């Protein structure tokens, strides 16, 4: 699975946004011309105390809200 930053939406102000969520969102904003797997994003954020499971959870939330797009490899496999 490759994730690419689509666009920035203002997240619902009623939702609870953690510093980790803000860091993940900032990572994709800063790298919006590139594609990353959730694992690659996790490794890139590793020095910022964002755990791998947190990155996967946050990426799923961003995908579900339409902020990130998901792409598959040529045969439907994760790249």
Written account of the structure:
- This protein has helices spanning 19-30, 38-44, 52-64; strands spanning 2-5, 35-36, 68-71.
- Helix 2 crosses helix 3 (52-64).
- The protein is globular, with a radius of gyration of 12 Å.
- The model is unreliable at 6-14 (pLDDT under 50).
- With 79 residues, it is of the alpha+beta class.
Quick structural summary:
The protein has 79 residues and is an alpha+beta fold.
Regarding quaternary structure, what we see is: single chain
Gyration radius from CA atoms, angstroms: 12 Å
Shape: globular
Task: Please trace the helix and strand order, writing H or E for each element.
Answer: EHEHHE
Can you tell me the residue ranges where pLDDT is under 50 for at least 5 consecutive residues? 6-14
Query: Strand order across the biggest sheet?
Result: 2-1-3
Mean pLDDT across every amino acid position? 77
Strand fraction band?
Answer: 5-15%
Tell me roughly what share of residues is in helical segments.
40-55%
Largest sheet: 3 strands, antiparallel
End-to-end Cα distance: 6 Å
């Amino acid at each position: 699975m490759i994730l690419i930053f689509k666009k920035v939406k203002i997240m619902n102000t009623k939702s609870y946004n953690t510093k980790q969520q803000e860091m993940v969102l900032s990572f994709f904003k800063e790298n919006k011309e590139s594609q990353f797997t959730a694992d690659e994003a996790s490794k890139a954020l590793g020095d910022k105390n964002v755990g791998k499971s947190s990155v996967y959870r946050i990426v799923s939330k961003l995908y579900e809200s339409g902020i990130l797009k998901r792409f598959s490899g040529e045969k439907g496999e994760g790249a």
